[in-house]
Each structure stands twice: as C-alpha cells, then as structure tokens.
Amino acid sequence: MVEQVTKGIRVSVDTYFEGSFSKEGLLFYAFGYKVSITNNSTDTVQLLSRSWDIYDALNAQEKVIGEGVIGKKPVLNPGQTHTYSSGCLLRSPFGAMNGYYTMINFTNSSQFQVYIPTFKLSATHLLN
Predict the structure, then answer these.
(1) Could you give the number of structural domains in the chain?
(2) Which residues form the domain of 67?
(3) What are the BP-aspect GO terms (predicted)?
(4) pLDDT tens figures, 37-67
(5) How far is CA 121 from CA 40, 88, 105, in A?
(6) pLDDT of residue 118
(7) CA–CA separation, 38 vs 19, rounded Å?
(8) Which of 29, 55, 60, 110 is geometrically suited to a Cys-Cys bond with 96, CB 3.0 to 4.6 A?
C-alpha cells in the first residue's frame, strides 16, 4: 500500500494483478487497484474530477481525465472515507500510475488538488 496526504486528505492505494489475456493477437495484462480517500481535515470536501498518468513499460504514457470516480462525486465530511475499486490494462506486465483529484472545500468554496501517490503495477509471478 502507498499513501499520501495533501491538505488533510489521505489517499491510500492497494494494487493487485488480475491476469492476462489475448485480444486480436495482442497480449494484455489486467491490474486492479483499490483507493481509499479519507478526509482528515476539519472541512467538508467533495471530489469533482480525476487526472491519471498511466505508465506502461512498453508503451508511451497515457493520460486519463474525467469527472468523479466510477460515476460518483463523493462528499466527505471530516473523518469520512470513500473507497472504490477500478483497474487498467497494460501491454506490459509492469507499469505505474499516479495523478491527482480536484476537490472543492465547502467551507471556503476553493478548489484544490489532492495528489495520488505513484503506485507500481506488476505481474509479480513474472519476477525472478
């Protein structure tokens, strides 16, 4: 697990390898990740959007930007945690991801970025 705290918001990420499959003659590696976002600040906040950088050992970096997370824009009161699971496909058995969430603080109506720490994606069964 990796963790990072930005302005009192803790982001924790666990990763796992889901398997590989072939599609149209190409081999893909599927990875899952579970993210927990905990509001350790004294203010109520809402997650508005996400920005991911996905690094594949064999391919160029991919950027994914979108609203919310898995169709939700969770509101977190002080002390609350929102957890969700998602995944990505890589052409390589190794890669990494990082990024940030854009959030709004309801106390002062300001938007801010909460950083998602870099986490590794690896098909550990392929390591020596």
Answers:
(1) 1
(2) 2-126
(3) error-free translesion synthesis
(4) 999 999 999 999 999 999 999 887 999 999 9
(5) 27, 10, 31
(6) 97
(7) 29
(8) 55
Q: Give percent of the chain above pLDDT 70.
A: 96
Residue 40, burial from CB neighbour count under 10 angstroms (0-12, 13-18, 19+): middle
Tokens of 60: 């160029």
Q: What does the DSSP 8-state code read for residue 25?
A: T
For residue 13, how many C-alpha atoms fall within 13 Å in the half-sphere facing its CB? 23
Q: What is the CA radius of gyration of the chain?
A: 16
Cβ atoms of 7 and 41 closer than 8 Å = yes
The CATH number of the domain holding residue 101 is 2.60.40.1470
Which residues does the chain have with pLDDT short of 50?
none
Distance CA 96, CA 73 (A): 24
Place of tokens 């994606």: 121
- Distance of alpha carbon 58 from alpha carbon 30, whole angstroms: 15
Query: pLDDT at position 127, please?
Result: 54
Cα–Cα nearest to 111, from 35, 48, 44: 48
